[in-house]
Design brief:
95 residues, mainly alpha
């Protein structure tokens, strides 16, 4: 029972950290491109922001914010799967 509790705690922590890091990363990317539009090279940053917004709106069915959350949830799931795999491998090496 203790191993199950450790596994669940580890997976939930990995899911939350993966979600938060991917969400913050995407928001920093968009924020940096938005601030870059104020520079003399605004055309480059504007085009990059437009392209990233198109990709995000594709994943979000036309909504950029929904695309950000979709990608964050997907990366969260991947982080949880990696953590479960690492937990399994650690337990099998321990025996």
């Amino acid at each position: 029972m203790e191993k199950l509790r450790q596994l669940l705690f580890s997976i939930v922590t990995a899911l939350l950290v993966s979600f938060c890091l991917s969400l913050v990363g995407l928001l920093l990317l968009l924020g940096g491109l938005w601030l870059g539009q104020l520079s003399p090279f605004a055309m480059v940053f504007t085009q990059a922001a437009r392209l990233i917004s198109e990709v995000l709106s594709t994943f979000g069915s036309g909504n950029v914010w929904q695309g950000i959350f979709t990608i964050s949830l997907t990366l969260s799931l991947v982080g949880g799967l990696f953590d479960a795999f690492a937990f399994y491998k650690y337990q099998s090496l321990k025996n």
